[in-house]
Structures are given as C-alpha cells and as structure tokens.
UniProtKB/TrEMBL annotation:
Cofactor note: Binds 2 [4Fe-4S] clusters. One cluster is coordinated with 3 cysteines and an exchangeable S-adenosyl-L-methionine.
Domain TRAM: from-to ranges: 386-449
EC assignment: 2.8.4.3
Gene transcribed to yield this protein: miaB
Functional summary from the UniProt entry: Catalyzes the methylthiolation of N6-(dimethylallyl)adenosine (i(6)A), leading to the formation of 2-methylthio-N6-(dimethylallyl)adenosine (ms(2)i(6)A) at position 37 in tRNAs that read codons beginning with uridine.
Positions of [4Fe-4S] cluster 2 binding: 166, 170, 173
PROSITE patterns assigned: MTTASE_N, MTTASE_RADICAL, RADICAL_SAM, TRAM
Cofactor: [4Fe-4S] cluster
NCBIfam families to which the protein is assigned, alphabetical: miaB-methiolase, MiaB/RimO family radical SAM methylthiotransferase
Pfam (any one): TRAM
Protein name as catalogued: tRNA-2-methylthio-N(6)-dimethylallyladenosine synthase
Amino acid sequence: MAYWQDRGKAPTACVDTFGCQQNVADGQRIMGMLQAMGFTFTDEPARADLVLLNTCAVREHAEKRVYGNLGALTHTKKANGAQVICLCGCMAQQPSVAKKVRESYRHVDLVFGPHALWRFPELLYQVYTRRGRVFSIDDEPGTIAEGLPVVREAGVKAWVSIMYGCNNFCSYCIVPYVRGRERSREAECIVEEVRGLVAEGYKDITLLGQNVNSYGRDLGTGMDFADLLSRIDGEVEGDYLIRFMSSHPKDATPKLFDTMARCPHVARQLHLPFQSGNNRVLEAMNRRYTREKYLELVNYAKDVMPGLVLTSDVIIGFPGETEAEAMDTVSLVKEVGFDALFTFIYSPRPGTAAAAMPDPATRAEKQVWFDRLLDAQNEISARQHAAYVGSTVRVLVDGESGDERWPLSSRTNGGRLVHLLGSRDLIGSFAQARITDSNTWALFGEAVE
Ligand code: SAM
Ligand code: SF4
C-alpha cells in the first residue's frame, strides 16, 4: 500500500482484545492479517498508526469500558491525524452500537462485526484509499475462512476455534445475535492445525466453540465432538494436552466423558456451565436441562474420570429470580464441589428475551446473594486445593509467576495453577511438582526429579 511505502518505515498497530477466548483467537488472526500487511505492533495507542478495539458484548460493563477507551482515542487521533481507528468484535455487530459510533464517535474509521473478520484487509484498504469511514456489519451468511494468518502468543498455550456461532438462544445471552448460527470447521482442518501447533512446540491446546457439544451437526458427516477428540488424540502424536470450552449440559453425553477418560491427550478438565441450580430459572433461561440432569452428568463424569477438575459459569440475579432460587444455585455449588467458578451478576442485554422480563430484585439484594455464592465457592476451592498438599503431580511449566519465592507458573493436567520453585530451564516443558502449600486460588510447590 502506497500509504506507508512512502513513509519509508513499517506502520505500527495497537490491538486491544476484550472478552472471551474466542475473541482472543479472533484477535490473533487480526494480528496475523496486520502482520501480513506489513504492520509491527505496539501496546501504546499514542504511538500507533492503527488502533483496533476487538470488543465483547456479553455484559454491559465490557461495553462501557470500550466506550471509555474510544473516547480516550480522540486525543491520540488529534495528535496524529492519520491514525486509523477500528472497532470490531461482538459489540460492533449490534446495529445500535454501529449507529451510536456513526453519530457520536466520528473519529472511528472502520467498524466491522465477527462475520466480516476475514474481510478485514479489504475493508482497511477501503479506509486508506477512500479516506472515508467504512461500516460492515451486515448479517452475512456464515463464512468459514480457513488459512488466515495467525500471530500466536509465544509459549506453550494455543487456542483453536473448531466452530463459530451459537443456536441456543439462552434468554439472557447476546451471543447468538452477534455471532450468528453454528458453523463447524472441517475435522481435517482442525486436526491439521493441531498437528502444526504440536510440531511448533505448543503443548496446551484449547479447542473453542460456544457449545462444542454440537460440533459437526451442520457438517452432515455423522462425526460428533467426541469423535473429533478421539481423532485428534489418535492422529496427532506428541506430548501435549487438549482442553475444550464451552460444553452445554443439554448436549453433553456419557460418550463424551468416556472418550475423555480413554484419550491420554485429553486433559481431565471439564468446564460445564450450569448457570442456575433452580429448575424454574433454568427454564426461564431456556437452558433445556434440569438441576437433576446436570447432577447426573457431573456424577457420571466424576465416576469415569477420577481427579477430574470441574469448573462452571453461574449467573446470579436473572430477572424474577427470588432469594430462595438464588440459594438453590448456592446449594448446587456445594453439592457438586467445583474446583472454580466464573460468577456473574445478570446484565440485561438489549434485544434478548430476558431483557423484557420483569426484574424486581434490587442490585443490592443481588449483590448479597452473589457474595454468599462467592463465600461458598471460596471455601470449597480452598478445601479442594488443600487436598493436593503432600502429593506430587505432573505440571506443564508455562512461564514466570512474578513471585520470587515461587518463580515459575505452571498448570496441572486439570488446569489448576501451581506456583513453582524450580529452574527457569523448565519453562515450556512438563515437570513433576511436589505440592507444599495452597490457598483459595492456587497451589504452591517445588519441582522434583
Ligand atoms: N457459550 C458458553 C456457554 O454456554 O457456556 C458461554 C458464553 S458466554 C460468553 C460466557 C458466560 O457469560 C455465560 O456462560 C454466562 O454465565 C455469562 N453471561 C452471558 N450472558 C450474560 C448476561 N446477560 N449477564 C450475565 N452473565 C452473562
Ligand atoms: Fe450464550 Fe447460551 Fe449460546 Fe452460551 S449456549 S453462547 S450462553 S446462547
């Protein structure tokens, strides 16, 4: 592009990604495309020729942060009139957001949603050549673009999207509106990507999808997610672990858990979001399983995979939820004994079914229920972690911890964080760790022969 060839130096981009791992994976492909166009990267918006915010729309808080950041970019753009500002990701796919940006954030040059990710170079070319604003948020039929370049984080961890979109329309959730219907990648492409990552030295690979348990339904090949796991495990050789997220309980099956138990490369970790422990609330959420069905699933999974690390997502304060119903969620947490939870207070998302439901409980009431949930989970996490003390476990050392007493950061097979005393030479490899201490959030130990 003539624009920067004339300047005699490579242009710089600052990419800021918000939200879930799917967004992180998208951000890595955006960086891949930028790198292929000749950009280098900076963390400082003020020094960048191009600033891109890759946004999340799942909760209101995330959107507010993005508007704050967009506001601050008026200053960088004032200082550098040629700076190009891009907004993409789930927030950008919402017509109301695009309208607001069009009218009130006139310094933003390019807006595109997840559907148009693969068209980013073309859209950017339009910005540079037309020198006008470009908006691309049309709800296009789902395209899966294979072979986009990726800039991955150095280290041992990598993310692989196996499918895009969601068909479930949980009543509180914006994702199906902004990411479209489910589209699965061909198994061959996924297996090849994992093979390439293992050959490059990645050892902790997470397969991503909004509901990996419906993988393959749209392909019509008869292959399901358990079959995909089996295939990767059997066909990709090497010392590595496969994780996945998220699993929807309505589609999780004993076949999946049996496959996990049988495949040595599949980590003993299951993230199975239950959202609520009350059947009336689950129905209002359109989750399509009951508390009893959920308990049956996790009990089966624990039986076939001793030592399984179980995590989940929970929402407190869904519209119309009563204190007793919220306490059903706390009782489910105690009954299952999760290793960790991702906990959220309900956030209304315009256009979703739940946003139109009466929501009489106050924010202060919801906060009290939420705090009770956190107290219950913190006590369980501390207890689960204390049970590791004295044992020796295999860990993958993934970097430095920033704490001189335990300089290394590592993860167990089940994904538990272990701060480790040992040589920095271990970074990037599997090691044995003797666990000497623990707290609510982590284990502490020393590397042993
Ligand atoms: N597809 C995944 C699943 O079903 O488990 C989750 C995707 S969503 C990005 C991650 C989590 O955000 C959900 O599991 C839910 O707990 C939470 N979440 C989604 N919408 C929310 C809302 N409106 N308010 C609060 N939390 C929400
Ligand atoms: Fe949202 Fe439900 Fe789809 Fe997860 S499964 S992305 S919570 S609609």
